[in-house]
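Why do we bother with a discrete structure alphabet at all? Because it lets us treat a fold like text: something you can write down, compare, and reason about line by line. To make this less abstract, here is a complete entry for ABC transporter ATP-binding protein. Read it the way you would read a sentence in a foreign language you are learning: slowly, and without expecting to understand everything at once.
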Amino acid sequence: MCAQFKRGWMTMKFRPSIWASRLTEGQSVLAAAGTAAIMAVVLHLLLVDAPGAMFSGLSYLSTWAGTAMAITWGVGLSVLPLLYAFGRAHPKLRQPLRRPGKTPVSGMRGFWGLLSAYWTSERWAEAWSLTIAVFAITTLISKSSVWAATASADFLNSIVSFHTPTEGTDPVAVLMMAVAAFGGIYLARYGAIGFRHFVSASLHRKARGWTQAQFSSAMLGRNHIAMNLMSNRDAAPGAVGRMPDNVDQRVDECTNNMFGGIIGLAMGVWGSVTSIYFVSSAIISRSVEVPFLERWFAAAGAAATDAFGATVGAALTFSPGEYGSALLVAVVIALYVPLGTFCAWLLGRVLERQTLERQARDGTWRGELNEMLGRSGQLAISGGQRVQEQTNGKLYRGIDEVWHRMNITQAGFMMFTNSYNFLSKRLVSYLPALPGYLSGALTFRAYSATSELAAELIEDCSWFIQVMPAIATLKANAVRLSEVAEAIEVASDQTEFYSQTGVHKFRHLSQDPHFGLTLKNVALHHRGKDSAPFLTVPQINIRPGHWAYVRGQNGCGKSSLMKAIAGLWPYGTGDIVLPTGAKMFFAGQDPDLPTRLTLKELVTYPDFPSRFSDIQVAAALAEVGLGKFIANLDDDLHHGKPWNNVFSGGQRQRLVLARIILQKPDVLLLDEACAALDPLATLEFHRLLAENLPKAIVISIMHTPEPPVAPGGKAYYDKILYIEDGIADIHALGHAAPAVDQIAAE
């Protein structure tokens, strides 16, 4: 590790414009450690609670004991970034603190499970070292509020006493020193706030990155979870099996906003707790006796003595004494803060409901825009712009309606918080210490300091009011994200998932490869527990090397049968038996061409490109008639356009043929895989399949009433799978076929 750090520092070019972006992991650790040591010295100064904090702190630090303590703080905080780096590298510190569930998001189905998932994951050492650093800096900032209030009072007092200075002091020097201390303290405080933002933003970034990776992994896991999430979204809200809407928006925006909210709230809670402790201690240390309180409590004790006797009266007699002004601060806060908190809570409940509704409508509108852009070519051909514009406008009017209501709520909340804060800082905070100042027990400097501290304490105790909108947003984001986690958990078990809304009793089995593919007592249903089967397959078998051609009328279930063989049809019963270890390839009607892949990645899809050499990919492209694109294997754009907008329909199907040639499946399902090819190209398509897949099981749906035949007269297909009157049966080629009006795939 040391050698890595050394190499990193030696290669660093200190150009300010790029320096920060070129930090290596090791350099970041050392920079954080050095910064932590510097911050430790400041922390030590802030923990020195004595009158004239700046001067007392510097004097104390000049001693050997103070220096030793500052070094101790520096070493202690420097351990945090080192722990962070060690936790990322050491295998024993990369073990999760919770047991794994059925899916990567199994533990995120509840509010607290979702919030704590990153901190109990395999990256817990990284998470907690950053969290501890954030809390340490927040403690530092909280303590600095006392120092800042004292410096502010010193500054005001130096102005007030400028013309009546204490004997033996230079008023100009006192004023300049007060200005320097006042400015320096605030600069240091805001510097610490900036550094905390960097650390907390890093924690936010890493937590969100880890969480979205878990959701991505879960949705792309086994049992086609992503496809299952897109089903049954038309059911009524709260209906059994209903899937959440706008999954993309939930995973994208909600993960970002949720972790930003929870980290900010955690810093706020801890900052308020520590600040309340530090500020309360400072207020108590400055508290003085308040004469009218003494009189009131004495009168109350006398009344208790008269009413209950001397013994009870003595027990009930209480005198605040020197803690009188501190007691007044506590009374004011006890009356003022709960009232404001209750009002904020009422407004926050309304805001939370509106936030949930706004997020749902935003997601629907954005999803429609994405879908519109994805079919922009078809939209231009059909001329449906006016209808699409009407749809977009209708969806946005829904956003505008809830946005209008949110604006009213937020405006009311802003008026309330601004009024509350103004009264807190300019009136309420100056009332508790006023009797002590009027009685002469407090100097103006002490009165100013106590009032400033009271304002800080009211602000800290009012933390809930300030963050109510953030809490409402956090809860809304967590609810929407946990709904996705719950849906993923349900969808991960296909049998249980589809049994909620229909019949799902398929058995996917395997057998000796010699016996090929077998379907036995298969019945396909639509959604609904009482739905009747629309297609039944008593029993069919196709051995390796045999090709079957599917015939049937429109809507008879040809494509549904293909999906059932591939394990993609949700509702039905029966046994689907595949050869053991068989590799299946399903070439559907619309080829899957992701937009952010290079040409080589598209050709080798769904495998990784590293499995095939450039020569293999180039040979496959040349073989299927796409050789002119060989020079662009590493390009993800062609003439500025993604590949899915470059290829014509026929070229797309040739690209799929190249995939088949590379991957050489044992079972090949073709659902109109030649629909965009002319007759000669269709013959060439089948010739290449026969040459490259001599032992494969091929099942194909085509437009043509008869299967293609090789130039020599030999038929590519030796079996025909008839579907008539809801029953599928298979015969050898040449068997009399039932009359079919039109042949097409579903």
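What the structure line is telling us, in plain words: The domain at 504-590+667-732 is CATH 3.40.50.300 (Rossmann fold). Residues 324-374 form the longest helix (51 residues).
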